[in-house]
Structures are given as C-alpha cells and as structure tokens.
C-alpha cells in the first residue's frame, strides 16, 4: 500500500478542467486526509439560508455573510461548524485551544455545535456553518489529483471567513506564484472568447 502524505489543512482549488457541478470553481479546505480517505468543506458556496434559521443560538457568532454554506454534496442535512481562534494560533495556555473547539490546522478548527455557544463566544474570531461536506474514499482524491482536477495550495485563516466567498476561487489563485496565478483570469465560459 502506498503511503499517503497528509494534505490536512490545505486547500483544493478546482481546476478549470473540473466540470463536476458539485465542485466547479470551488475551494475546499481539507479537514482530514489519510489512507482511509479525505474530508473537507467547500468554502465558497453560500446558501440563502440564514444561520439564525437553522442554528439560532450560533447566529450571533457567525461571520458575514451570516448564512449557511453548502459544504459539499454529502450529508446536506448535517451541520458542521468551522472557526478561527485568533491569537497564538488557537493555542491558548494549554496549547489545545478552547473547550468545544478541535484544531484542524493552525488557528482553524471544528466547533462542537452541541456545546453552549457562550462557552466559545469569547474565544472565537470567526465562525462559519456548513451544511454537508465533501468526502473521498481511500485513494479517490489521489486519483483526482493525478487527473489534474485540483490544485493543492496552502490555506490561510482568512480563507475560512472571507467576506466575499463568491470571489474566493479567484482570490486564492491570484495569490499563488507563477503560472498558477494566471489561472485566476480563466473565463467562466471559455467558449465565449
């Protein structure tokens, strides 16, 4: 069996060649990646549903826009909270971060949405709520990477809380070096050129 190098905490940016409507022009933050598969959330698919409509207690902590994001095509009836803990990369005095928050990468972590929001209110910098997630079985993501479906780039804490999520695909590509930055100018419909 081939050893899988973890991509946890990195971004998958859909290449223009990826035509699956679930992932066209998406930016996916990988929350877990190992030999058993991969799990992530799409960061740039806001829905019209307000956080207050589904998780009223968490609405005041949700960043702008205060809507639920479609995290992916899997388990759309489940909610996942992702938050940035500012300061010492979410370390806190114990290095573990606040109670009710589990570090994924750097200052980014998962929020226990069953915990009382007031437990985390003073610690969280930003919070996003996602309906569903993106998932890949063992070796599936690696095959898609080999096929050229995704660019793998470093994430930044601000990616999770971008106030303009619809422009995140271009913004992430634009900050890359070299030819990859040029992909940000790729037209939505190349046949119109």
What labels would you give this structure?
193 residues, alpha+beta, ten-stranded mixed beta sheet, 33% strand, globular
Describe this structure in words.
35% of the residues are buried. The chain starts with 9 loop residues before the first strand and ends in an 11-residue tail after the last helix. Strand 2 and strand 3 form a beta hairpin. About 3% of the residues have low confidence. It has 6 helices and 10 strands. The protein has 193 residues and is α+β, with helices and mostly antiparallel strands. Strands 1, 2, 3, 4, 5, 6, 7, 8, 9 and 10 form a 10-stranded mixed β-sheet that branches.
Structural class: alpha+beta
Query: What summary fits the major beta sheet?
Result: 10 strands, mixed
Tell me the number of helical segments per DSSP (H or I, 4 or more residues long): 6
User: What sort of overall outline do the alpha carbons produce when their principal axes are compared?
Assistant: globular
Oligomer: single chain
CA-to-CA gap between the ends?
45 Å
**In percent, how much strand structure appears in the residues?**
25-35%
Helix content: 10-25%
Strand segment count: 10
Overall mean pLDDT stands at 89
Task: Using the CA coordinates, give the radius of gyration.
Answer: 17 Å
- Reading the helices and strands in chain order gives EEEEHEEEEHEHEHHH
Low-confidence stretches: 89-94
